[in-house]
Write a structure and sequence with these properties.
The structure holds two protein chains of two kinds. Chain A is of the alpha/beta class. A six-stranded mixed β-sheet of chain A has the order 5-4-3-6-8-7. In chain A, strand 7 and strand 8 form a beta hairpin. In chain A, helix 2 packs across helix 9. The longest helix of chain A is centred in the C-terminal third of the chain and has 22 residues. The radius of gyration of chain A is 25 Å and the shape is globular. The C terminus of chain A is likely disordered. Helices cover about 45% and strands about 10% of the residues of chain B. In chain B, helix 6 packs across helix 15, helix 7 packs across helix 10 and helix 7 packs across helix 11. Chain B is globular, with a radius of gyration of 25 Å. The N terminus and C terminus of chain B are likely disordered. Classes of the chains: A alpha/beta, B alpha/beta. Chain A: It is an enzyme of class 2 (transferase). Chain A: This is Cytoplasmic tRNA 2-thiolation protein 1. Chain A: Its main location: cytoplasm.
């Protein structure tokens, strides 16, 4: 017996992932689009006459976003001017393909397109960043840079708002990740449907209650073209754990994703908890909660050959860096010769003379909020020295400094880098 | 001296060769390694564990001297350690309050014979008597028809629990009627996650019921840090985010008349197990219906598996999660109008338009876009449940918090729920939202719904 659509009683083709309802395609499209329309209305996302930039990456979320925004703009007379804004992170093989998809979108919906790239904004591409920092904390770089890139591109285009395709799964993952990492400030902000209302350009998420599987279902049946692989640098991201958990949860109870968002919305922070205060960066004038915005800190780190400057405890890294500089200056003055590249107790911090524990996590350093030891990369033997993650300083005080203990004995290329027990 | 490796083999070697010392006294050979790298010798570890317990109670001042507290004992390792801490405190004369132990018998849900049930309960009685505390016995099904006695009225409801003073007095608390009622309700709940959540909430209700009947104002439970971190994540996954701060704080004041205290929340499971091993504390393994549930169908098991897996690779996971929940609070209790009729936590359903709850309602409403088809589907449903049932279900739903709504979703006949829950849902006061909905066409408001006077 053929299944009947729950709404119109016609022939059904779909079981909706979000609710498990049996529906026909038309009713599904209608329900999908109208739920987003309700999110727009309830969150009061737009006012008529605004220029809105759609953050377009070429993936399924942004393709469907471009489509749905065009449809709803017409159907419900939002009165918006829509523009496509795309960011080129410089990841070969991944980003250039997805940018082609964005160009197709531009033609399909007739929307103007602007592409901003990391190369022109910062002078670094993700490929070169990953070469410096390895595969562990690269997502932090990409995320921070991309957010600024989107805002800068939007300011160039003089738009009033940015919309992004963050869906319910993304928000649920963010909530879980922030609970796991103890990031109370982000935990409070991440469930808001519009963020950044004070100061910078507001960013809205019309897909906040839309399931990822629904989006795929919609794109599939409407034959929307999108680029669908994972970023090649993402497999070690911490977010992957939260994502796996959410996927398992969804299998047991599909409503769990919305339930997590509801939980996130119901959280209430104690009044005496210290929250970051919003100011502007003293160097670039961008919005920041510290004196220097994260992007400036990271850029300085990259340019000076200390890529960990933006990761973990910035003030410690900076202190170590300053001490190192002072010592270099003293040595240069005293001995009047060039810096050596191999010493037994210290290594220089400029460019490529970094030594590491051979990838076995020997430095035992605890990053930021107490994460696992540094895994510099699993098969470091095959890479060059400059690929190593951390730089070294002999002074104590946690962070990367603990490397100094085992580093005396270990070089890159040694397959098993066990410390010499007798020499404790 | 800092160790570069955390492998067990390396630690063992280090202990053997004397490279690793107790971090406290730096003298004796360590026998326990807790947290990441903290090695303790036996004496120092015991001092550490006891100190954690006592300072948790002392610093927070949740229990005042000469108070009578109720201590929940399940037979598991954490509550056995809790009893041992209390016993040691009493021996040393440092225990400033009096303790009565309560044990909830949940064997009605498992198919064991009456004789086996009696034996298990007997074991509990023996252990508690060894510790030297008076014992109250009750069972999970007692919560099915609990009635809160009105002030001044003599309660006609059956007693929640029985005192046990000697071993011979233990006859099975099994009340077959109530047990069947409970089993029927559990079978009607559609999903396993709903069942486990319901059992947990019911267990809480039993504790509160016993406390209220016997006049206790404090209930002490043995939640470790590990259990709390799993609890937090499960609450988030089940839509109970508003209860996270209550579920983890040392003094849980949401019920008003009874406070739940969690003195071992600073110790994680490994430390409790080490303590039990060093002090030869016995725990009883009692069969439970949750033993047959698996991480592929139970949210709590999945979450526990997830957290324990993360903890292996990132040892600071559990402390991070608990510390996050410490920073969470809640609105003023007095200003919160209503409590959920099932779990007695403040309701979290009075949310604005832009919220997940409204999004879910819109989703359901959109299914009935066509007026003609709605009456068709209603006609199909009417054979299943009457108008009366539907009204009762709507009333019940409105009186529950978001999380409990999920638990009860799919339950056809809400009258199967415990008596006190059904009563509360029928006699609750209407929330302002519902009043507004009833008279909305007569209110001359602006769009925001503000009344003209405000």
């Amino acid at each position: 017996m053929a299944k009947r659509c729950r709404v119109c009683n016609g022939a059904a083709q779909i079981k909706r992932p979000k609710t498990g309802d049996i529906m026909c395609k038309e009713c599904f499209y209608y329900a999908f689009e109208e739920e987003i329309h309700h999110t727009v209305l309830a969150g009061k996302l737009f006012t008529a006459g605004e220029t809105v930039a759609i953050g377009a990456s070429g993936g399924k979320d942004s393709t469907v976003l471009a489509h749905v925004m065009t449809v709803l703009n017409e159907r419900h007379n939002y009165g918006l001017n829509l523009i496509l804004l795309s960011v080129d992170e410089g990841i070969t093989g991944y980003r250039d393909d997805s940018l082609e998809t964005v160009k197709i979108n531009q033609q399909e919906y007739g929307l103007p397109l602007k592409i901003v790239s990391y190369q022109e904004l910062y002078g670094w591409t993700m490929d070169s960043i990953v070469q410096q920092i390895g595969l562990k904390n690269n997502c932090t770089y990409c995320g921070v840079f991309r957010r600024q890139a989107l805002d800068r591109g939007a300011m160039l285009l003089k738009v009033d708002k940015i919309v992004t395709g963050h869906n319910a799964d993304d928000i649920a993952e963010t909530v879980i990740m922030n609970v796991l990492r103890g990031d109370i400030a982000r935990l409070r902000r991440c469930t808001a449907v519009t963020t950044g209302t004070d100061g910078a350009l507001p960013r809205c998420k019309p897909f906040k209650y839309t399931y990822e599987k629904d989006i795929v279902m919609y794109a599939f049946h409407k034959n929307l073209t999108y680029f669908s692989t994972e970023c090649i640098y993402s497999p070690n991201a911490y977010r992957g754990f939260a994502r796996a958990y959410i996927k398992d949860l969804e299998r047991i109870q599909p409503s769990a994703i919305i339930d997590i968002i509801h939980s996130g919305e119901s959280l209430c922070v104690k009044k005496d908890v210290r929250m970051p205060v919003q100011t502007t960066c003293s160097r670039c004038g961008y919005i920041s909660s510290n004196e220097l915005c994260k992007a400036c800190v990271m850029l300085e780190g990259l340019n000076k050959g200390r890529p960990r400057l933006g990761i973990g405890k910035t003030h410690k890294e900076r202190r170590l860096f300053n001490e190192e500089l002072a010592r270099q200056a003293a040595e240069a003055a005293a001995t009047n010769c060039n810096e050596t590249t191999t010493t037994t107790t210290t290594t220089t911090t400029f460019t490529n003379s970094k030594v590491c524990c051979g990838g076995k996590g020997a430095c035992g350093s605890m990053g930021g909020s107490g994460q696992a030891p540094e895994m510099c990369g699993s098969n470091l033997q095959s890479k060059s020295e400059s690929d190593c993650v951390g730089s070294v300083s002999p002074s104590g005080g946690g962070g990367v400094a603990e490397c100094a203990n085992s580093l005396k004995k270990v070089r890159i290329g040694v397959p098993t880098a066990k410390p010499n027990l007798l020499e404790f | 001296m800092v160790l570069p490796y955390r492998t067990e083999v390396f630690r063992f070697y280090a202990i053997l060769t004397g490279k690793l010392q107790c971090v406290k006294c730096r003298r004796d050979v360590p026998v326990v390694v807790t947290r990441v790298n903290d090695a303790f010798c036996q004496d120092c570890f015991l001092v550490y564990a006891v100190h954690k317990f006592r300072s948790a109670i002392g610093k927070s001042k949740v229990i005042v001297p000469k108070e009578h507290v109720l201590v929940a004992y399940s037979g598991g390792p954490a509550s056995s350690a809790l009893l041992h801490f209390l016993q040691e405190g009493k021996k040393e004369g440092k225990l400033r309050f009096t303790v009565t132990v309560v044990h909830i018998d949940e064997l009605a849900l498992v198919s064991v014979s009456d004789k086996e049930r009696q034996e298990k309960v007997q074991e509990v009685v023996e252990i508690v008597q060894q510790r030297g505390f008076p014992l109250l016995l009750t069972s999970l099904e007692c919560a099915m028809d609990m009635v809160k006695p009105e002030a001044g009225e003599s309660s006609q409801a059956p007693e929640m629990c029985k005192e046990v003073t000697s071993e011979k007095e233990v006859d099975a608390l099994a009340n077959p009627d109530k047990g069947d009622k409970l089993k029927k309700l559990l079978d009607s709940l559609p999903s396993i996650s709903a069942k486990e959540e319901f059992i947990r909430v019911l267990r809480n209700q039993v504790l509160l019921g016993v406390a209220r009947e016997r006049g206790f104002t404090k209930v002490v439970v043995g939640d470790t840090a590990t259990a709390l971190s799993v609890r937090i994540m499960t609450d988030m996954a089940k839509g109970k985010g508003s209860q996270v701060s209550f579920d983890t704080t040392i003094g849980d004041k949401r019920y008003g008349d009874v406070m739940v205290v969690r003195p071992i929340r600073d110790l994680n499971m490994k430390e409790v197990e080490a303590y039990n091993r060093l002090q030869n504390v016995e725990s009883i393994s009692i069969p439970h219906i949750a033993d047959q549930w698996h991480k592929s169908n139970s949210i709590e098991q999945l979450t526990a598996h997830f957290i324990h897996g993360l903890q292996e690779n990132f040892p600071s996971t559990v402390p991070n999660i608990v510390r996050t929940s410490d920073k969470l609070g809640h609105q003023d209790i007095e200003s919160l109008p209503e409590k959920c009729s099932l779990c007695e936590s403040p309701l979290d359903t009075d949310v604005g338009e832009a919220s997940a709850l409204r999004a879910v309602e819109v989703c359901e409403r959109l299914l009935q876009k066509d007026g003609a088809s709605r009456s068709q589907s209603q006609a199909a449903q009417s054979s299943d449940c009457t108008q009366h049932d539907r009204v009762a279900a709507d009333n019940m739903k409105a009186s529950l918090c978001y999380g409990c709504r999920l638990t009860v979703k799919g339950l056809r006949d809400v009258s199967l729920l415990p008596t006190h829950v059904v009563q509360k849902s029928q006699s609750r006061c209407l929330s302002r939202d519902e009043m507004r909905a009833q008279i909305s066409e007569f209110l001359l408001d602006d769009e925001n719904g503000d009344t003209p006077n405000s």
